[in-house]
Each structure stands twice: as structure tokens, then as C-alpha cells.
Amino acid sequence: MAVSDTQSPARRKNVIAWISLGVSLLALGLKYAAWAYSGSVALKSDALETVINVAAAIGGLWAIHLAERPADDNHTYGHYKAEYLSAIIESAMVLVTALLIARESYDGFMHPQAIHAPWIGITLNGAATVVNLGWGLTLLRIGRRIRSPALVAGGQHVLSDVWTGCGLIAGLALLPFTGWHWLDPAIAALIAVNVLRVGWDMLRQSVSGLMDEAPDSATLTKLHDIIAEKAIGALEAHDIRIREVGAITFIEFHLVVPGTMTVGVVHDICDRIEAGLRQALGRCVINIHVEPEHKAKNMGIVLAHATTAS
């Protein structure tokens, strides 16, 4: 199933979520086979992490479907934050997985066992790692382009699995030559630490989205520049607020205009500003509160070109 740039964002995210589920199931099958053939604690730990990938893909399908539902009487701003909820749930699952892997590592240290058929296990796990690398990069690229927290979180999780797999393969490849049985649980312990780090980072980003954290300075600068460019005839823009919820940007500010300006002219100015913001930032919900000139605060965006307006 191909992912086309001509599809709507909602359709594209739904297609990607279904592909994610298929890729996760394929990787899980390969990693389970790798553990079954070898008996390696590290490979078992890696397979445990992939179980979370499958659960996360199912959760992502639910979140994306819910996030695209239109606003209703109970959710007048829409359901966009459902993707953040999905990302938080996935983050929590990743943290729990880290603890399970740590327990497996501890058991491996206490009861070390020889690995059977290590090269078969390494080969199978390597195939799963290659699959995850391609898909993880795809999820990150598309998720960032269409501003989907669920897809970005999924991509970060999958790529953490890739780096884990690379370290795991390198470590297990040494076992047949060194005979260091402790290396297997040691690798599992490193996997647990990496999974814990990724889960914490995912949780932090998702909570920031739910708390309406302001976007980066580059986005704010772009917003100010667009208002200054399009608000010809107005005097000032202040009390500017912006928040990003998934693929939607919510913007509100006060626009000060001359007291003699007609409603029609003010409406045209607002239309120009809204069109410029949507062209630059994509899907936006914009609320502009118009005020007369005596409400100016001499702060925010002072529009120097206002005196040239007729």
C-alpha cells in the first residue's frame, strides 16, 4: 500500500498507521524467531520491546481516527489532542518495557546460559532491524511534515529499536569468539537503559503538547512577520497567542485599527492576515479581536506602515 503526497492528511495518516501495524508484526515475527532459535536474553528483550511497537501501532490507529473527527457540542475545539494521548500511552508502555527488559537482564546475570545458534539469531534480528530503519525514517519524515504527534512518536520509538538492534548484533557477534556469557545480559541491560531514555523523551514531548507549550522561536518569528506584512492599514497587533495541537495551529491576537476605519476595510485586513497565516502555517484556527486606536499598548507588533494606508 503506497503513501501518496496527494492524499489528504487524514487519509495519509490512516494508511501509515495500518502500514505501521503490518511492519511491527513482521518485525515481531523475525525477532521472536531470533530469540526462539538462540535463547538469547538480549534477543528476548528486543522482542519484548517490539511487542510494544505492535500495541503502539494499534493505539495510533485509534488516535488518528479520533483526532480527525469534527468538533461537536462536547469538544468544540475538535479532537486533535487524541494523538497526544496516544503518544503518552505509548511512552508509558515504553517505560514499562524498559523495566521488564531490566528484569530479564538481571535474571540473565544471575543464571547465565549459553546461546544456541547465535548466527541465525543475529541474521533474523538484523533483517528486522533493516525493516525498522526504513520504516522509522519514513514515519519521522511524514509525521513531521503533516505535524502528527502520534506518527512522530511512533517513528522515534521504531528508530530507538533500530539503534538497540545495531548494538545488540555487534555485541552478540563477539560471543562465539570470546565465550563471555555475561555479555548477553549486559547487552540486555544497555537495551533497557536506551528504551528508558527514549520513553522519557517521548513522554516529555507529549506532555508539552497537552500543556499547550509555545512553538519554537522560528515559528513565532514567522507569525510576527506575516502579521506585519499583511496588516497594512492597521496600527498594532498585541496579546498574540499561539498553540499547536497536532496538525492544527490555534492563533489569536488583538488588532488595533484607526477609529475612522470602516468595518469593510477592517474585514479585508483580517482576511489578508488569515490567508497569509494559512498559506505559511497550514491548517489554522484564527481569532482576531479588533480594537480602536485608543486601545493601543505600544507593544507587540507596532505596524510602521500604518500611516501610509488610506
Automatic annotation (TrEMBL):
It comes from the Bacteria. It holds the Pfam family Cation_efflux. Keywords: Membrane, Transmembrane, Transmembrane helix, Transport. Residues 215-293 form the Cation efflux protein cytoplasmic domain. Residues 18-211 form the Cation efflux protein transmembrane domain. The chain crosses the membrane at residues 15-35, 47-64, 84-102, 114-137. SUPFAM superfamilies: Cation efflux protein cytoplasmic domain-like (SSF160240), Cation efflux protein transmembrane domain-like (SSF161111). It is a multi-pass membrane protein. Signal peptide: none annotated. It is found in: Membrane. Its main location: membrane. PANTHER family: MITOCHONDRIAL METAL TRANSPORTER 1-RELATED. Belongs to the cation diffusion facilitator (CDF) transporter (TC 2.A.4) family. This is Cation diffusion facilitator family transporter. It comes from Acetobacter conturbans.
